[in-house]
Amino acid sequence: MAWVASFACLSACGGDGSSAESDASVKSVSAVNASAATLAPSAQTLAVSRWMPTAADTWQLQLTGTVNTSYPAQVFDIDLVDTPQATINALKAQGKRVLCYFSAGSSENWRPDFKQFAAADMGNALSGWAGERWLDTRSANVRQIMQARMDLAKSKGCDGVDPDNVDGYTNKPGFPLTATTQLDYNRFLAAEAHARGLAVGLKNDVDQVSQLATDFDFAVNEQCFQYNECASYKPFTTQGKAVFNVEYASKYKTASTRAALCASAQAAHLRTLVLPLNLDDAFRYACD
């Protein structure tokens, strides 16, 4: 799943709003929560300061096509590899924060580092997503590839990362992954991001939100309203952490239905967008 893993406008939503970022969003971090057995030495010892999104931040998500940088959102979630450096530079010059997306739980045969995965690292195909296969997230080689991707995110000037497909154990990956191995891997990702001064989001993995909310700086959710899962994000919102939500159902393109959605999103302290499944900027409705 290139970006689908599981599954406030108080008037008709269609506009975008923004407010000035606060220096308070940069938070000092003296330690990271992770299993020491899975961390590189730098991740165990390095103390860094990093930006973190707040619950009030507006956002935009676009993973395909030429990124539209004109929206007055404060945070842009864009593809780590496909987004040109010039686009990231332009966003940063506007004072935007940049989250860089990559799949941490699947191989994608069009990525430039695909050949670095061993045959044994790759399991079953992801249903509905051509060219993707689940990864054995216990693999040291897989983890080294993810470390290199986060190095790339740091070098490109990303403020944070959005690692996707981090709930393989709930699917049929072709490996004996469990809730325990998933927690270990997700905490590994969080610690490695923090060691590089990057904010890191928990993408979906709804069943483990309560266990991982202290490890991650924000959450990215797909379709929690459609699947009645939004209440699961209270461990994030009660800490004042951002929960960026996107809905794909076509019913939300209708103004009256969207108004009810946005009212619910505001009440739950979620930042909700209604976007096309291809995430190509064909349309955008924001519950700002």
TrEMBL record:
Record-annotated Glycoside-hydrolase family GH114 TIM-barrel domain positions: 58-282
Coiled-coil blocks: none
Top-rank taxon: Bacteria
Protein name per Swiss-Prot or TrEMBL: Endo alpha-1,4 polygalactosaminidase
Lineage: Bacteria, Pseudomonadati, Pseudomonadota, Betaproteobacteria, Burkholderiales
